[in-house]
């Protein structure tokens, strides 16, 4: 068994008790949302319309479909990539290599789907199977996390994540012990973060749109907007796939239940909530309002992409002409921090852009219900918490220089507010 790390990171998420509560609460919330979205009243805060029995949740076909989907995405991951990128330096000074072919996987999935649909594949029927599919995905996430936990017990100490090896099995199962679990060159965390869940999300959105066509003859403008905005977000993530290698999830967090469930179940089945809502609660949307919503999404995307690209370009090559003129602070690690451009506006401009987009994804659903705004509420909480975790890590990495950055750029996410 791998020894525990010398210096243990402080526990997050409320320790073992918080982790245990989240492991129950997250799947329960996901099923609540799935049930409520199709109910007449669609009340986010009310009780679910009914409690489904096992026969409504369990379907071997749904399990088979989920496993086939994972198999297809794994096969696409293994196809030759246009580029192989190196990750950040690890504790043993090595760097892992990652295939950059996520966008190719999206395009090939779309082509296969197009072929399937022209051969009569009833994609809309997927929208009737969301409950058993979500159940199967949750089951897979639990079993997968257990296997990951067992695997982590036999890896050397340097392969463990800084946060997920507290010695408490519940906490470590939740957060993930091993930083980069792999079999040969197949990296499970990197694969799950970007492929099955994100592509699954847009697939579910499309299925809901097809079902709307079946029911009402044509897709509504609101459904078009939600599908379009979220496809742009997923396409962007896969186009800029290499940038995920510098996120907290890849660099810092282990691969445990939180990310396995988040990637495989939470993202596809809760992030598609607006499209689910629209299928059962059609909303009128005029062109002027639709134009305003498109503008909000465009502003959000502009900030999100501008900020993420600026940081990624700077981290790759600080002398790149696109960032060379920006003002910086030097740190004791030899790395620099940007204090002008997007990163001089607030300390997390990318979160601000992401939140503005989240608002634009909910607005097509009107203002009669709180339910489609769940993503915005959850995402605000997630990013506020994530920002605090990142600040803590940056303070540890950069010490005084980070204090100086906070003095120069006092707002975290929203200028003059937070
Ligand atoms: N849709 C979703 O569910 C989610 C989306 N996201 C999105 O993912 C993206 C990535 O987010 P995340 O990984 O949390 O964090 P960031 O991309 O914001 O990365 C934070 C890191 O950036 C570096 N950094 C911070 N400040 C500066 C600066 N001034 N100059 C240069 N480098 C700096 C630090 O790392 P270092 O110095 O070591 O480089 C810091 O740890 C965001 O756009 C976020 O909105 C995130 C979570 C969920
Ligand atoms: C369910 C729990 C409360 C928490 C689970 C969190 C995960 C769902 C998210 C953690 C970080 C994520 C990122 C993206 C999706 C959601 C998760 C996995 C991301 C891939 C979305 C697309 C973006 O462009 C991105 C920057 C690549 C994102 C990276 C972080």
Automatic annotation (TrEMBL):
<dbReference type="GO" id="GO:0005789">
    <property type="term" value="C:endoplasmic reticulum membrane"/>
</dbReference>
<dbReference type="GO" id="GO:0050613">
    <property type="term" value="F:Delta14-sterol reductase activity"/>
</dbReference>
<dbReference type="GO" id="GO:0005637">
    <property type="term" value="C:nuclear inner membrane"/>
</dbReference>
<keyword id="KW-0443">Lipid metabolism</keyword>
<dbReference type="Pfam" id="PF01222">
    <property type="entry name" value="ERG4_ERG24"/>
</dbReference>
<dbReference type="GO" id="GO:0006695">
    <property type="term" value="P:cholesterol biosynthetic process"/>
</dbReference>
<keyword id="KW-0752">Steroid biosynthesis</keyword>
<keyword id="KW-0560">Oxidoreductase</keyword>
<feature type="transmembrane region" description="Helical">
    <location>
        <begin position="100"/>
        <end position="123"/>
    </location>
</feature>
<keyword id="KW-0152">Cholesterol biosynthesis</keyword>
<dbReference type="InterPro" id="IPR001171">
    <property type="entry name" value="ERG24_DHCR-like"/>
</dbReference>
<keyword id="KW-0256">Endoplasmic reticulum</keyword>
<feature type="transmembrane region" description="Helical">
    <location>
        <begin position="255"/>
        <end position="273"/>
    </location>
</feature>
<keyword id="KW-0153">Cholesterol metabolism</keyword>
<dbReference type="InterPro" id="IPR018083">
    <property type="entry name" value="Sterol_reductase_CS"/>
</dbReference>
<feature type="transmembrane region" description="Helical">
    <location>
        <begin position="57"/>
        <end position="79"/>
    </location>
</feature>
<comment type="similarity">
    <text>Belongs to the ERG4/ERG24 family.</text>
</comment>
<feature type="transmembrane region" description="Helical">
    <location>
        <begin position="285"/>
        <end position="304"/>
    </location>
</feature>
<keyword id="KW-0753">Steroid metabolism</keyword>
<protein>
    <recommendedName>
        <fullName>Delta(14)-sterol reductase TM7SF2</fullName>
        <ecNumber>1.3.1.70</ecNumber>
    </recommendedName>
</protein>
<keyword id="KW-0756">Sterol biosynthesis</keyword>
<keyword id="KW-1207">Sterol metabolism</keyword>
<keyword id="KW-0444">Lipid biosynthesis</keyword>
<comment type="pathway">
    <text>Steroid biosynthesis; cholesterol biosynthesis.</text>
</comment>
<keyword id="KW-0812">Transmembrane</keyword>
<feature type="transmembrane region" description="Helical">
    <location>
        <begin position="355"/>
        <end position="379"/>
    </location>
</feature>
<keyword id="KW-1133">Transmembrane helix</keyword>
<feature type="transmembrane region" description="Helical">
    <location>
        <begin position="17"/>
        <end position="37"/>
    </location>
</feature>
<keyword id="KW-0472">Membrane</keyword>
<feature type="transmembrane region" description="Helical">
    <location>
        <begin position="129"/>
        <end position="150"/>
    </location>
</feature>
<comment type="function">
    <text>Catalyzes the reduction of the C14-unsaturated bond of lanosterol, as part of the metabolic pathway leading to cholesterol biosynthesis.</text>
</comment>
């Amino acid at each position: 068994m791998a020894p525990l790390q010398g210096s243990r990171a402080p526990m997050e998420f409320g320790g073992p008790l918080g982790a245990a509560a989240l492991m129950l609460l997250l799947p329960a919330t996901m099923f609540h949302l799935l049930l409520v979205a199709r109910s007449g009243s669609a009340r986010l805060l009310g009780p679910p319309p009914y409690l489904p029995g096992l026969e409504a949740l369990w379907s071997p076909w749904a399990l088979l479909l989920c496993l086939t989907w994972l198999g297809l995405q794994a096969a696409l991951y293994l196809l030759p990539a246009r580029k192989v990128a190196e990750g950040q330096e690890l504790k043993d000074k090595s760097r892992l290599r990652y295939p950059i072919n996520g966008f190719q996987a999206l395009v090939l999935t779309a082509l296969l789907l197009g072929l399937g649909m022209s051969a009569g594949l009833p994609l809309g029927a997927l929208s009737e199977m969301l409950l058993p599919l979500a159940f199967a995905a949750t089951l897979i996430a639990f079993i997968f996390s257990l296997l990951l936990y067992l695997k982590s017990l036999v890896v050397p100490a340097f392969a463990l994540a800084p946060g997920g090896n507290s010695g408490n099995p519940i906490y470590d199962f939740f957060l993930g012990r091993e930083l980069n679990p792999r079999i040969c060159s197949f990296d499970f965390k990197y694969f799950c973060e970007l492929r099955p869940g994100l592509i699954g999300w847009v697939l579910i959105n499309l299925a809901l749109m097809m079902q709307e066509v079946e029911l009402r003859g044509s897709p509504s403008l609101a459904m078009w907007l939600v599908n379009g905005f979220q496809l742009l977000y997923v396409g962007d993530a896969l186009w800029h796939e290499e940038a995920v290698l510098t996120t907290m999830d890849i660099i810092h967090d282990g691969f445990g239940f939180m990310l396995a469930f988040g990637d495989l179940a939470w993202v596809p089945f809760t992030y598609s909530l607006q499209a689910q809502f629209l299928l059962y609660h059609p909303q009128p949307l005029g062109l002027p309002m639709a134009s305003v919503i498109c503008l909000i999404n465009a502003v959000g995307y502009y900030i999100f992409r501008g900020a993420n690209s600026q940081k990624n370009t700077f981290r790759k090559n600080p002398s790149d002409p696109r960032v060379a003129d920006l003002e910086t602070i030097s740190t004791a690690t030899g790395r620099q921090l940007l204090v002008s451009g997007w990163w001089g506006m607030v300390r997390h401009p990318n979160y601000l852009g992401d939140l503005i987009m989240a608002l634009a994804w909910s607005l097509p659903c009107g203002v009669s219900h709180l339910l489609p705004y769940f993503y915005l509420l959850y995402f605000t909480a997630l990013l506020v918490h994530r920002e605090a975790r990142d600040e803590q890590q940056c303070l540890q990495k950069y010490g005084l220089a980070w204090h100086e950055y906070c003095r120069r750029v006092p707002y975290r996410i929203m200028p003059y507010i937070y």
